[in-house]
């Protein structure tokens, strides 16, 4: 089975407690069975270099970060999932209680919205609303 691969441009908008952040990146999208994988390198920061993999499937979003920052977060509506966030300074356990998740995509291109409450080391760390926009990149 061959895996379709194309360049994509993604935009992630995050809202929490009246604060909004936006991140854009160029990456690669792979279609494999019923799953969509998006892989991109985050802009280098004081924490170093990190590659992020987003796995999209029906009713679930999984985000895996590897490199100088490592993290694993899974979002499933109506469920609380355990994950982690790790830097050179240490590791923190995370819990994501997902409230809603909607996907409007065709062949991996489109938008995904989800909202969740984040708990870090057992303490409520905020309510987040995420919008992931996936567009075909240059030359695709």
Please give a quick description of this structure.
By secondary structure, the chain is an all-beta fold.
Account of the protein in words:
With 140 residues, the protein is mostly beta strands. It has a single domain, classed as Lipocalin (Beta Barrel). The protein is built from no helices and 10 strands. It has a 10-stranded antiparallel barrel. A hairpin with a 2-residue loop joins strand 7 (80-87) and strand 8 (90-106). Pfam families: DUF1934.
Features:
140 residues; mainly beta; Lipocalin; ten-stranded antiparallel barrel; DUF1934; Calycin; DUF1934 domain-containing protein
Rg from C-alpha positions?
A: 15 Å
The CATH superfamily title:
Calycin beta-barrel core domain
Helical percentage: under 10%
Strand content: over 45%
How would a textbook summarize the main sheet? 10 strands, antiparallel, barrel
- According to CATH, the fold-level topology is Lipocalin
Low-pLDDT residue spans: none
Indicate how many domains the architecture comprises: 1
CATH architecture: Beta Barrel
Number of strands: 10
Spatial sequence of strands, sheet with the most strands:
1-2-3-4-5-6-7-8-9-10
Summarize model confidence as the mean pLDDT: 93
Structural class: mainly beta
Outline: globular
Number of DSSP helices? Answer: 0
List the secondary-structure elements in sequence, H or E: EEEEEEEEEE
Compute the separation of the termini in Å.
Answer: 21 Å
